[in-house]
Amino acid sequence: MTTAREERRLVTAMFVDVVGSTELVTRMGAERLKRELGTAFGEIATLITSHGGTVEKYIGDAVYALFGAPIAHEDDPLRALRAAEALREWCAAGAAGGHPFAVRVGVETGEAVVDLEAAATTKQQMSVGAVVNIAARLQQRAEPGEILVGPTAREATDASADLESVGDIDLKGIGPLSVWRLVRTGVVRAKALPFVGRDAELGLLGHAYQRAAKGRSVLAVVSGPPGQGKTRLVQEFLRARGAGSRVVTARCRPADEVGVFAPVREMLGVTTLDALADQVGRMCSDDIECERVVAGLAESAGIAAARSLSALPVAEREDEIVQAWRRYVGLLGASEVLILAVDDIHWADPSLVRLIDRITFGGPRVLVVATARPEFAEAAGIRPSGDRFFIELEGLDRDEAKQLAELAGRDDDRVVDRAEGNPLFLVELARAGSGGELPLTLQGALGARLDQIAPADRALLAFAAVAGERFTAADAAFLGQRDLVEVGRTLTRLVDLHFLDLGGAGYRFHHGLVRDVAYGRLLTAERMKAHARFARGRVHPEDAESLAHHWWEALRPPDGEWVWGADPDLVAMRHEGFAALQAAAQRHADHFAVDAAIELVERAVVLASNERELAEAEQLLGTTYRRVLRQDDAWTHQTRALDLFRASGPVPLGVYHDLLRTAAYFGAFRTPPTDERVTEVAAEGAAAARAAGDQGALARILRAQAQYLINRFNEEPERAEPLIDAAVDAAEASGDPQARRTTLITKTSVRRIQGRPLDLAVFREIEALLGDADALERMDFLRMRAQSEFLAGDLAASERSVIESVALADPMGPHNRTHAWANAATLFQAQGRWPELIELAHRTERLVKENATSAFCTAAGQILAGGAIAHALRGERDEALGLLRSIPVGDIEPDLITMVPRALLGIASPASDQKLREKRWAWWEWGSAAMRAVVFGRPDDAEAAVRRMGPITVNSNVQRAYAEAVGEATAGMRGGPTPTFAALRQLGLTGWIQILQRRVDAEY
């Protein structure tokens, strides 16, 4: 029975244990510990009472507080959770240099008997009930920093807090109880407006989902002006479909804010190579496939650069990245529909747009839903298909607009008319209050709403906008120079007011326009100084993109000049800004985000303080332009860098190597440098490397000069050989296995182009030096080895190398797969394995058709031409012509590749003769010309072609046998003995024999 001074009340009990005091006794001493605890208890009590709670008593290192007595509030359970969250933030702030304590908290709601007299006076023994015991037991089971919540408190706050279940916990004296862990408060789901209208658009997204569910790759683009409800529509769709699917989200922002890689990393959910490898490894069982997938994903996300991918031409590199993403998406969506939701894709780098376009064009099962501004779809050049949905949002109709305005609190006709059906504008006008003139624009409506909140809150929001669209409470406190706990409470209010949303590890602005309007309220000087403070105080030193953004916003002209004036720290800040911009540009260039890299370097030039920094910027500009074969621009900037380095001190040896690499891409120049100029740079660089005793740099310089000579003077490749040999020697002297390996590979490549295979012992040495080479580098090595083994006549060894290279190529992009397949096609054709060659050719035909955007090279053409030869020998003319028509255009020389199959079909190819006359070709082109001449019965032309094949090297048994076979055929055509083709027959090259025995009249 209760007395008059006692009442039964619904209350929320909270126990807070101050963790670490026992441990601290020995380190701090009892006297100091008591003082620290006293201070801590005072701060804890202040936080609790500021949220409407009452501290009832202290029990050792614990605090017991009550919400709902002596004064009750309708949201007491939520107040308790917010107080607990504030305590957790107080601990986080203390870890950064304040108090040494952590807390663990238990919270539960229930009935208790409350002594109102005690509540009004001593606050001691004021409440009794099971709820008190439950809260105490929850606190005991919590870990430091953890807030455990009982079932009744969870039910009361479910609409306003994120809570995750920890299952049933057996509490001493109570028994099993369902318990939740507080993630964060401020979700305010109850205050969120219901979704209005858009039934047709939701239906289209549902149709897109059904197509993806049937195994198709689907892209849906939802477009509309700012505030039209694009994101909300997608959220509503995900609410309905997301539960039975795997949902991955990403949000794009202007590249100068976060860099081009931020949305890709968000899609992956990891930021380090180890984490990415672990994530892929859990889904993928094949080591080679895992390696290729990780390499492509890491490259596209700017996490790590794969050496082999960086060395590829741009188109091949993009193929490998697309292939990696297709494999990854296929793994993610293996057991359920994968939905990839990309917000504001109009901000995305073109490389991400192309990636999404290619993934969703005949790729694995996936539904990509992207939101964009109206102009995006046409500007992006996305290819149409039956699996592409373009949904353009118009304004809500009047009835829907009135319904939404009413839900938001103000549905008069002026609001509806002014908003013109734009949902965000409509809501902001309704929330801006009644009376007075309505704002003319959406930005004006947002500004009017900002003016309704306290100046201090408005200022905090503005400073938080400096951090970006997303930020943490600590970021806002740092920028606003305010107390973290107080900032936490303010941010909670701003979430309640729909200026902010809680997401991930912090906050984000409810809409990009909210952030823009808040940011625009800052004066120029305070905004720029806030960016500088943030760059130094809150950005991780390795976050090059963020550092570059904040330093540029802090120092950018013309405002930077008058804002900083004669500030003594300006020189140091410019150095820091320059370094950050260079680092960010280098990262973007390393991953072929060339446009972003160039913009960053051009900003770095503006901040450069001396000739040395200007030289570094010019050098980076040059190497970046070279990545996309803008060789004239690359050469101009690199030579400018060389002059600036000369004027400011020693020239880095890498500058010479980079210049020579640029010169080596001779065919990409509009106005190439003179041979004298290139020779001068090479001589200066080699002399500098020798003077420095840097054999590795010398090897790279000599190798680059040799490659230039091969590319520039194709008629005289012998000029390069002494340089290659010297590069190999320098690489060996350097003791660097990678340098030795790359120079030997260059040597084998050049000799292979000349039709002069190396001794196979060299390949054994290269193989021993492969070390950390990845699958692509190993595959390229195996291709070269297979070709040399083939030319040496060891067909069994060549086939083993081919099989191994094909296995390595299987997880790669379509372009590189054809590289490995081409060796197999050569073997099949030479040995007369026609069914295998036909199957491989049609497999290649399908690969080319399914990957229309891939840039295929001669390898694909060789396979298709080989299949056409097989069909022609069988008399299957239409099938042969079909394969020839499938040869993709681009870098392929179809006139040369198709000489033999055309001859077998009786089709002359005069364009081939013209191309053969234009430049010196490798032995196999002249070998094909000889074979064509034999098929057409032209002995003189066949002999001339054999002479052009060049000298037969000592270990090229196949070349020798081939030349003998052509000689036998020409002698037979002139009335000599019937050819036996004994040398080819002995090597097992019966397929070539069948071709050489065929005689066809040409059609003109």
Search tags:
16 strands; 5-stranded parallel sheet; alpha/beta; single chain; 1004 residues; Arc Repressor Mutant, subunit A; 8-stranded mixed sheet; Rossmann fold; Alpha-Beta Plaits; 11% strand
Would you write up a description of this structure?
The chain is an alpha/beta fold and 1004 residues long. Among the domains are: 6-187, Nucleotide cyclase, GGDEF domain (Alpha-Beta Plaits); 192-394, P-loop containing nucleotide triphosphate hydrolases (Rossmann fold, 3-Layer(aba) Sandwich); 453-522, Arc Repressor Mutant, subunit A (Orthogonal Bundle), CATH 1.10.10; 523-609, no CATH class. The chain is built from 51 helices and 16 strands. The protein is elongated. The model has no long low-confidence stretch (mean pLDDT 84).
